[in-house]
Amino acid sequence: MKSNIYRRDLYLSRIRPFIGHEQIKVLTGLRRCGKTMVLHMIKDELISSGIDESDIFLIDMESNMGREYRTGEELYDHIKEWYGSDIHLKYILLDEIQQVEGWERCIRSLKSDFDIDIYLTGSSSKMLSGELATHLAGRYVEFRIHPFSFTEVSDILGNKTDINSLFMNYLRYGGMPLIVMNEYNLLMNSAVMDGMYDSVVIRDICERNGIKNSIGLRNVLRYIMSEIGHNMSSTNIANYLKSQKNSISHDTILDYLTAAEDAMFINRVNRQDLRGKEILKTDYKFYLEDHGFRLSSGMDNTVSVDQVLENIVFNELKRRGYSVTVGKGRNSEIDFVADIGGKREYYQVSYLLASEDTVEREFGALQSIKDNHPKFVLSMDSVDMGKDGIIHKNIVDWLLESGSCPM
Using CA atoms, how far apart are residues 407 and 318, in angstroms rounded to an integer? Predict the structure, then answer.
């Protein structure tokens, strides 16, 4: 990988304080979201700080070289040989480590036996819930890597087109790095997105979870993608599929959803009762890790603008480090309740505030909340329509604001 590729300094600024410390650094994220890019940035950072490149071991476990080490024992033996007898701090960077059987034991042994600083990437949200978490409690730190934010897209392509045209490309095609670095090439977008979608569905969901019915999985995911931002449950998913003569049991649907969450393809968002503060047990919403994947199921993001804008805002809040729920009031629903560091913000998202009814719906929902936490309405309108202490912002302007760095 070329070291002059776009630097994702937003993530490096969070990782940098841990460089050289004993915690294992674990980068998780959707396949092809840019984890490898960040890993190579770390290598460049080490070299620029004076570390000899011979003291850095970096390997992609999905490359031809990485495939030589199918077990943790094989990988351990190779790194032991590489480390040699010259005992001093060295650096191990392993990309897509979940491809190695028994990798947790290998990492635990390496950490115990050698003076090394370890960096791992993986495309499974559960990789820290097993043996590594059990044996290294408190000795690792996780960094969630996301596809490009609109700020990053603007940094990369902002000098090539006006900001509104650039945002329309981002709205249509999303922020997956391969799409963005190809400058939203119209001849390539669909084929590239289809290839990445197949890679996630077949490799990270079907193969990893032993799912044989890939068509059934695709039908469930297509329904999720068509209903982003809408309340749903396994029951209404099953009922819809049955109406399309594609019957799938509730348990199987739940298994599919869990597998898609583990692959970080979708994000489940719970609903919170704003009066009693408890998380509601029934219904939830899903958002895509990258809304561009809707293209792979034949959907046009310019047709479902409200839904896609909501998805974009959700992902931006997560990038900025917020925990996010949907707020359920007495007679209204708040799109997003965002919490960070003991602070709370409320968000309503709309395409355009084009009628009095729309203004009343979006602002009225926030006015019904009687606390003093900041309240925002985000839309594509260019005129500030804020009132009664509720802040109104243009979505593009809000996306380009500097926010908290993701963790």
Answer: 9
Cβ–Cβ under 8 Å, residues 366 and 348: yes
- The amino acid occupying position 11 is Y
Q: 85-144: per-residue pLDDT in tens?
A: 999 999 999 999 988 999 989 999 999 999 999 999 999 888 877 666 776 777 899 999
Residues in Cβ contact with 164 at an 8 Å cutoff, skipping those fewer than 6 apart: 396
Give the mean model confidence (pLDDT) for residues 387-394.
Answer: 97
Which H/E stretch holds residue 24? strand 24-28
> Is pTM, for the whole model, over 0.85?
yes
Contact (CB, 8 A) for 36 and 1: yes
DSSP output for 9-23: HHHHHHHGGGTTSSS
CA distances to 10, 45, 258, 317 from 7, rounded to whole Å, are 9, 11, 32, 21
CA-to-CA separations, 316 to 147, 222, 405, in angstroms, rounded: 10, 23, 10
d(CA 91, CA 107): 13
Cβ-proximal residues to 188 (8 Å cutoff; 6+ apart), any chain: 182
Half-sphere exposure of 363 (CA within 13 A, CB side): 17
Structure tokens at 105: 């034991």
Cα 170 from Cα 253, distance rounded (Å):
30
Mean pLDDT calculated for residue range 49-62: 95
pLDDT band at 381 (very low <50, low <70, confident <90, very high): very high
CA angle centred on 262, ends 280 and 133, rounded to 5°: 95
Q: How far, in Å, CA of 237 to CA of 259, rounded?
A: 16
**Residue 175, CB half-sphere, CA atoms under 13 Å: how many?**
25
Question: What size, in residues, is the chain?
Answer: 407
Higher-pLDDT residue of 278 and 322 is 322
Identify the residue whose tokens are 């009687």: 370
> Could you tell me if 11 and 143 are in contact, meaning their C-beta atoms sit under 8 angstroms apart?
yes
CA atoms within 13 A on the CB side of 334: 28
d(CA 298, CA 224): 13
CA distance linking residue 214 with residue 220, whole number of Å: 10
Question: Two tokens at 203?
Answer: 């490799």
